[in-house]
Amino acid sequence: MSVNLEPLDLGVTIPYHFRCPISLDLMHEPVTISTGQTYDRTSIQSWFAAGNTTCPVTGAPLSDFTLIPNHTLRRLIQHWCVSNRDFGVEQIPSPTEPAHPSLVRKLLNQASSETCTRQSRISALRRLRRLASDSEKNRSLIGSYNVRRISLHILFDTNSDCFELKHESLALLVCFSLAESECVSIASKPERIKYLSCLMFHSSIDVRINSAALIESVVSGTRSPELHAQISNVDEIYGGVVDILKSPVSSPRALKVGIKALFALCLPKQTRHKALAAGAPAILMDRLADLEKCDAERALVTIELLCRIPEGLAAFAGHALTVPQLVKTILKISDRATEHAAAALLAVCSESEECRREAVVARVLTPLLLVVQSDCTERAKRKAKMLLKLLRDSWPQDCVGNSDDFACSELVVPF
């Protein structure tokens, strides 16, 4: 097997034996298989998961798929990382041992037992959450037991007044995907939705985020329009989600959960006015530049959805950041983001002459022309053409004459 030892950006070459033979990357968790060959745990697990039953290097058939941690090699790799940290090499984290089924069962029994002390039940829930956060393998193992049923029972137990226990069960519950039946069991009981909406104004930002995450899971996992409406009609939920996005200490997870929840709540047209009343347009525009790719895409879809009702369109048209932020987004994040940014920009420019002037000042012509000629979606191209036509009809003549963008005016855009 040929190995290309490409240097790092700063000229540091990874030693041959520190690279995984499969990925050719620096090994973070080296493990040895029965043939004596060493691989990074993630790479060899993916190899086996794809149905391969041979050693990638030797080609020898395997009957034993045990992965033995190579602690000596891992320590050597960590030492090399520390020695080269001045060159931008980051130290690899120490791996955590996978959870054992017997430990998971013990912790679940402890958490659900009402004969145990409150503190021991809380400790069990916290340890389960840490295990679930350590790896997907742990999460899959814990999820294969009755962790969701136990967590739901603790969270909504009306006979319990231990709020810390409830909050820990909520934090554990949102680590897992809920089945539709579990979503229905929450959505069909108004008192449960009311309780979650109250938690969204808790003093702890973590409790608020976890409550919003559970509400988003329930809304997304429930097919019934009636149950959707039952959740979406709770005004406090919208205010809670917007407050999470407004928080000056919002973490990437807070922004992700807040945007996902707001998007899910804005899908039904009949309840979008509640998002407007909570101040969604302003916070969406204020936070758009802070979002990661997937979150930015969801935010732009939500903006377009809110622009489809008159009050929403007026709110975005009146916000100072709407036009410059949407122009800046075109062709900068993804094709999907470009499509929804162009659609929202077309909506506000159709609504307001002031927005059209702002688009001109923001030099929107060049990115729109590039969209038309790009491999973007057909809808993105269609919206870009419509916006070009709208701006062409209202573009100030003195601006046209002085704009560098019109140096390419010989380019004919079909409308």
TrEMBL record:
| GO MF annotations in UniProt | ubiquitin protein ligase activity
The UniProt entry, under Gene3D superfamilies, shows:
Leucine-rich Repeat Variant, Zinc/RING finger domain, C3HC4 (zinc finger)
* Limits of the U-box domain: 13-87
EC number(s) reported in the record:
2.3.2.27
Pathway annotation from the record: Protein modification; protein ubiquitination
**InterPro entries in UniProt:** ARM-like, ARM-type_fold, ARM_PUB, PUB22/23/24-like, RING-Ubox_PUB, Ubox_domain, Znf_RING/FYVE/PHD
UniProt keywords, alphabetically = Transferase, Ubl conjugation pathway
One biological process term from GO is: protein ubiquitination
Q: What does this protein do?
A: Functions as an E3 ubiquitin ligase.
What this protein is called in its record is: U-box domain-containing protein
Task: Cite the source lineage.
Answer: Eukaryota, Viridiplantae, Streptophyta, Embryophyta, Tracheophyta
